[in-house]
Structure formats: structure tokens, C-alpha cells
Design a protein that fits this description.
With 406 residues, this protein is an alpha/beta fold. The protein has eleven helices and 15 strands.
């Protein structure tokens, strides 16, 4: 590694050592070597030039090395600008204080030249690697933000979805929170004849930019199936989607999801599922029957075609009943007090327990609870209980049948 583009700052009040350290840095190939004779000048030059390494004498007039180090560390961190302390006295008793101030290394005069050169080389390489990694992180974060924006742009406009769902006799709300790492959640709603509507919710395996790109591809395939207007039965829809994904997803990747046809005015819902968490059918009675789990087992899509078909089932929402559909990001998250070992919780994870509690404790009101209130109350409970919602996408939706008075 060459250091021609590096800048070093030597802070030393003794001309002999100042020249000696400058010579060592030039021998290493450091392109720019700055010098300072006292601490205040050192702080000004450090903040202005932001050198890649600083050699700092501890005992100098005006502002000593201790105070200079404190001030420099307020502006420059120890990873991008290492500080190597030089002292003509035995300061081993002050080592703890020095490291707490942000000193990276320490050596005493008289110096062993080769030892000093080796340490300078190490810290220049270290700061270069750190700066390179930080630049990569910044580029990756920029790409992730671009991918996140692309995915969000492809999701339905909630203002366009609302009248479609409302005209069929339902109140609807959805919360979609992409994780920091970006997962593969997405959802769609489109109108059918006779006022019915079709709803899908999907979760593509993996995280990051590749998962985002595959999600966009699956969204395009899903939209193409919708535009063909042939697959209005949820089981048939998932069967055809699975066939497409077996040819498009990378080996080892898969998609879980569900498809739902909501019948206008009757509460009848036809559905098919491919490995998403159990749906929750809820009401406000507050008794043992106020919550019903509906299995969504099914082979994840994109794994095996082999003439596999998904079967449709039916449920019916009575007036004021609701249906909660979600991906696994919510039920698989943990709070700090939980051990991250799912097997110890038996068949139900802590996230699912909290979700069930939220839905069982809906207020017993005459009118149905607003779907937005159901979703937001659930998310508020997870936040108050300090569940970590950043490791995976969180998609949570509620449909509440309005009833005659709704």
C-alpha cells in the first residue's frame, strides 16, 4: 500500500524530534507532512486539514498534548485519524486516561526508529481500510435507499385502493415498513367485476439489493397475471404464479404469500396460501372465541413446479368481524428480554403471542373498530414492548366488515 495521498501531522516542540519524525514519514512515502510546535496550533491544523495520522507530544507549552487530544477527538474519530502519543517521560500510569481520551498508541523517547515506522505503517493502513469500508457502506446505503424507493414506488396507491375496498363493504388499512436491510414484502389490490376485489400479499426470501430486484421482478409477474384477467380464483392465481417463479427466481430463493378474493356485500372471502403466517379472524367480544387462527400452510412458491396446484378455501366475515393478514416480520421479531431461540417457546413465538393479545383485547364497541386503529394499536404495542422491528420487513393489514350501520 502506498501513502502518497496521505497527510500526517507531527506535533512536537523539539526541533530534533520534529525533523526526525518528518523524515520517517517521508521515508514511508507519506505525501504531505504538516508540523506544529504546540497544542493549540496542532488542534487548528488537525481540524482544518483532517490528517490521516497524528504524532502528538504530550508535554508542550501553551496547550499540552492531553488537552490537544481532547479537543481533536471532539472533531476527528480514532478510526479515520489515529493519534500516536510521544512522551519523554514514563506515562504508563496515565495510560488508561490516554486511551479514554482517544489515543490509539503510545511510545516513549528515546524512540526505536524501526518500531515507530512499523506502527505508523500499521495505523495508516488501518485508517485507509476503515475509510474504504466507510465509503463502501455509504455506496451500499445509497443503493439500498434507491432499491427501497423503487419498491415503494411500485406498491399500490392507498388513495386508489380505499374506494375499491370500501365499495365492497370493508374498512381496510395496511402498514408496510421495509427493514433497514430491505426484505421482499409487497402487496396488491385490484378491482374485479360485480364490485369484488382481489388482494395479494407476498414475501420474497432474502434481504438487500438482490432481494429488492427479485421482488420487483415478482411484482411485474404478478401484475402481468392480473392484466391477463384469467386468474380470479386465488388457488389458480397462486398455481400460475408458482409456475412463473420456478423459472425466474434464483436457485434457493422462494416466495411465500397469499391471494384473496373479497366478495362484495356478503363477507365471503376465497383464499389460497403459500406459507405465510396464520391469518387472524377477530371480533370484539373479548371471550375465548374472539380470535380464530386460520391456517395458511402451503408450499412456498418458486421451489417446485411439478404440476403443483394450490387449493382455495373459503371463510365468511360476519358484520363487525375482521381479518388480519401479515408476513412473518412481525411475529418473528423479539424484544430485548427474549432469548433468540424459537424452539424454547413451543409452537408460538413471542411476537405471535403479543399479536394475539392485541386482537383479543379490542374494545367492545357497537360499531366495528377502524382497521387503521387495529393496525396502529398492534404496532404501538410492539413498539412499547421494545420489539425489534428492523431486521425484516413488516407488512400488516386488517379488513373489517363494516355491517349495515357501517
Amino acid at each position: 500500500m502506498t501513502f502518497a495521498n496521505k497527510t500526517a501531522l507531527v506535533v512536537e516542540d523539539t526541533a530534533y524530534y520534529r525533523a526526525r519524525f518528518e523524515h520517517m514519514l517521508k521515508t514511508l512515502g507519506v505525501g504531505t507532512v504538516l508540523t506544529a510546535k504546540e497544542g493549540l496550533q496542532a488542534v487548528r491544523k488537525a481540524v482544518y486539514y483532517r490528517p490521516d495520522i497524528i504524532l502528538l507530544d504530550l508535554y508542550m507549552p501553551t496547550v499540552d498534548g492531553f488537552e490537544a487530544c481532547r479537543r481533536i477527538r471532539q472533531k476527528l474519530n480514532k478510526f479515520t485519524t489515529p493519534i500516536l502519543v510521544i512522551s519523554g517521560e514514563d506515562n504508563r500510569a496515565n495510560m488508561d486516561e490516554l486511551y479514554k481520551m482517544g489515543v490509539n498508541d503510545y511510545f516513549e523517547k528515546p524512540i526505536i526508529e524501526q518500531e515507530v515506522i512499523n506502527r505508523i505503517r500499521f495505523y495508516l493502513e488501518f485508517s485507509s481500510t476503515f475509510s474504504h469500508m466507510r465509503a463502501l457502506d455509504k455506496a451500499i446505503l445509497s443503493d439500498l435507499n434507491t432499491a427501497r424507493s423503487l419498491m415503494e414506488h411500485m406498491l399500490p396507491d392507498k388513495d386508489h385502493v380505499a374506494p375499491v375496498v370500501r365499495n365492497a363493504g370493508y374498512d381496510h388499512h395496511i402498514i408496510h415498513r421495509p427493514s433497514f436491510h430491505i426484505g421482499g414484502d409487497f402487496w396488491t389490490v385490484w378491482p374485479l367485476e360485480n364490485g369484488d376485489f382481489f388482494f395479494t400479499i407476498m414475501d420474497i426470501s432474502g434481504h438487500g439489493i438482490k432481494a429488492a430486484l427479485e421482488t420487483c421482478e415478482v411484482m411485474a409477474i404478478s401484475e402481468n397475471l392480473r392484466d391477463q384477467n384469467r386468474h380470479q380464483d386465488p388457488g389458480e392465481y397462486l398455481t400460475h404464479l408458482n409456475a412463473e417463479l420456478c423459472n425466474s427466481l434464483r436457485p434457493g430463493n422462494f416466495c411465500v404469500g397469499g391471494a384473496f378474493r373479497f366478495e362484495s356485500g356478503t363477507g365471503k372471502i376465497t383464499y389460497a396460501a403459500a406459507g405465510i403466517p396464520e391469518m387472524k379472524l377477530f371480533n370484539r367480544r373479548g371471550d375465548s372465541e374472539s380470535l380464530q387462527d386460520i391456517s395458511c400452510n402451503g408450499l412456498p412458491m418458486g421451489i417446485s413446479e411439478n404440476d403443483f396446484t394450490y387449493q382455495s378455501g373459503n371463510i365468511k366475515l360476519e358484520e363487525h368481524e375482521g381479518l388480519c393478514v401479515l408476513t412473518d416480520g412481525l411475529i418473528e421479531c423479539f424484544s430485548p428480554g427474549h432469548i433468540h431461540e424459537p424452539s424454547i417457546y413451543g409452537s408460538m413465538l413471542p411476537g405471535e403471542r403479543l399479536l394475539n393479545m392485541c386482537l383479543k383485547n379490542l374494545p367492545a364497541e357497537t360499531r366495528p373498530p377502524a382497521a387503521s386503529r387495529v393496525c396502529r394499536d398492534i404496532l404501538d404495542q410492539f413498539t412499547r414492548n421494545q420489539y425489534d422491528l428492523n431486521n425484516d420487513d413488516v407488512t400488516l393489514t386488517a379488513f373489517v366488515r363494516a355491517g349495515q350501520e357501517g
